[in-house]
Amino acid sequence: MMRISRVAWLLQVPLIAAFSTSYKAHYAKRVAIIGAGAGGSSTAYHLARYAAEAGISTNITVFERNTYVGGRTTTVQAWNDPLSPAMELGGAIFVEVNHIMMDAMQTFNLSAAGHDVLARLEMPDLGIWNGQEFVLVTKAGGTWWDTAKLLWRYGAAPLWTNRLMKSAVGKFLTMYDEPVFPWKSLSDAIERIGLLDVTGVTGEQYLKANGIGRRFADEVIQASTRVNYASNLAYIHGLETMVCMATSGATAVEGGNWQIFAHMLKSSRANVQLNTTINRISKRKDGSYQVTTSAGDTSVFDDVVLAGPLQYANLAMDPAPKHVPDEIPYTKLYTTLFSSPHRLSPEAFNLGSGAAVPQYVLTTLPLWEDSVDGVGSPGFYSISISDAGTNPHTSPRRFEYIYKIFSPSRVNATFLSHILGQKVSDEEAAHGDVDGTVSWIHHKIWYSYPREYPRVTFEELRLDDGLWYTSGIESFISTMETSALSGKNVARLMRDEWVSGRYKPEGWNQDPAYEVKQVQM
């Protein structure tokens, strides 16, 4: 409930009043956005700005089936304590080339998350584990000797990979500006900027064709594709592989990245209706859309934006739109947060007694193991210490590490006992024990992102007259930033269509008392 209250305060929408609003709009365009994640929030924010620039009045309603905004950027409080650190369950960081996220952080005067406690921990920064050994261990602020060892093992592959990444990302960034932006067809835009040859092959094929050695590809780049997209190089396209290597300037918002999207919604002055599921969209004879909630309430809109994967929306559409997005496989990812006074056991990673296990443990497949469309022999994608502090509930209070695990299945007591080198009971693995080995634990299952298999055609943005779709971009690149970019693009296309007059539902600019009724909850 605390998270709901914080969101409502940010949006300046009373929790009860938000669900029972009606008003009259003078020539206002009525827009429904289904989903308050990155795509939906960005659509509302940019549509309000674009429409205002064109002198067009809008009434924007955002429907969100969850009790919070931000989609996959949700957080939980460590130890279920409101004064303890907010821990990201989904999108944890964004980087300097993520222009929308970076600009929003500055515009809304949000602070970057600090990790002062972690900086004082005396342990290696990152290690890549292949199920039997660490093939690479690095330290933050490493010396020239660390760089020399890297070049000795991988030759010039790190340098060539960086150049390859900058070339691919540089082409992608042209999608933010004219003449490419706004794009009416994602497939056409990708072809225009020269990235189809990157999305049309696997990461493995793309790296090999560009002379990147197998050792660096399999040990380092694959570790990055696994932690970011739970995919090995043979099962992810080349562009998403390059995106995984664009890590410069990584940051996050203090208290949770969801605040960016909450501020976008607040700035848009949208009517945000949380805990509201839309289960039917019906196109009317005049070209407008009737939207029906699971409670049976209805309202009418000129435009509707679907800002989440349609295949998980449980949404009936009558009639079917001209373009229906393909159903594509999504990754089922288990995220586990837990706290313990114990560091990871060196014996679990075949290290000598007393050795320090790195703060971030990424995984890859050993060179002799055939590539699989799954986790392989390491058994998990990553384990990291996300934060540390004093547990306020233990007696006496004790210093604990807060871990995050990405895995293909739910972690159990056997696994936790192994990595900590301490006995963990089934009860602790499920719910935590305040004075036990695992004092607090939180489990979350995500259908987090599409399987990023190679492809050269992508979903339509405009499914029908007045019906828009932001999530088609996820098979191209799936990040908070690209979802926000897709929302911005749809907002611009919608505004341009209004200005051109190509699509005007009956009643637009005719009846000055045109009434807009919001859903009654």
From TrEMBL:
<feature type="domain" description="Prenylcysteine lyase">
    <location>
        <begin position="143"/>
        <end position="500"/>
    </location>
</feature>
<keyword id="KW-0285">Flavoprotein</keyword>
<feature type="signal peptide">
    <location>
        <begin position="1"/>
        <end position="18"/>
    </location>
</feature>
<dbReference type="GO" id="GO:0030328">
    <property type="term" value="P:prenylcysteine catabolic process"/>
</dbReference>
<keyword id="KW-0274">FAD</keyword>
<dbReference type="InterPro" id="IPR017046">
    <property type="entry name" value="Prenylcysteine_Oxase1"/>
</dbReference>
<dbReference type="Pfam" id="PF07156">
    <property type="entry name" value="Prenylcys_lyase"/>
</dbReference>
<keyword id="KW-0560">Oxidoreductase</keyword>
<dbReference type="InterPro" id="IPR010795">
    <property type="entry name" value="Prenylcys_lyase"/>
</dbReference>
<dbReference type="GO" id="GO:0030327">
    <property type="term" value="P:prenylated protein catabolic process"/>
</dbReference>
<comment type="similarity">
    <text>Belongs to the prenylcysteine oxidase family.</text>
</comment>
<dbReference type="InterPro" id="IPR036188">
    <property type="entry name" value="FAD/NAD-bd_sf"/>
</dbReference>
<dbReference type="Pfam" id="PF13450">
    <property type="entry name" value="NAD_binding_8"/>
</dbReference>
<protein>
    <submittedName>
        <fullName>Prenylcysteine oxidase</fullName>
    </submittedName>
</protein>
<dbReference type="GO" id="GO:0001735">
    <property type="term" value="F:prenylcysteine oxidase activity"/>
</dbReference>
<keyword id="KW-0325">Glycoprotein</keyword>
<keyword id="KW-0732">Signal</keyword>
